[in-house]
C-alpha cells in the first residue's frame, strides 16, 4: 500500500491518499498495448500484475 501525505507550511496534515501500488502502473497499460492484437491483452495485462480491486481505494 502506498500512502501519500500532504502537509501545509505549519506541518499540519491537509490530505492523505492511500492507493494500491499497481495504481501507478495503470497508465502504462495502453502504451504497452499500442500496435498489438486483442489476444495479446491477457499476457500484457498479467505482465503488469495490476490490481482491479485496489484501483478504487
From TrEMBL:
SUPFAM superfamilies: HydB/Nqo4-like
Matches recorded under InterPro entries: ComplexI_49kDa-like, NiFe-Hase_large
Name of the featured protein: Formate hydrogenase
Source lineage: Bacteria, Bacillati, Actinomycetota, Actinomycetes, Pseudonocardiales
PANTHER family xref list: FORMATE HYDROGENLYASE SUBUNIT 5-RELATED (PTHR43485:SF1), HYDROGENASE-4 COMPONENT G (PTHR43485)
Gene3D superfamilies associated with the record: Cytochrome-c3 Hydrogenase, chain B
Amino acid at each position: 500500500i502506498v500512502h501519500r501525505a500532504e502537509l501545509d507550511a505549519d506541518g499540519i496534515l491537509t490530505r492523505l491518499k492511500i492507493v494500491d501500488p499497481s495504481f501507478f502502473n495503470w497508465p502504462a497499460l495502453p502504451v504497452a498495448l499500442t500496435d498489438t492484437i486483442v489476444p495479446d491483452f491477457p499476457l500484457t495485462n498479467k505482465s503488469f500484475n495490476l490490481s482491479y480491486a485496489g484501483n478504487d481505494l
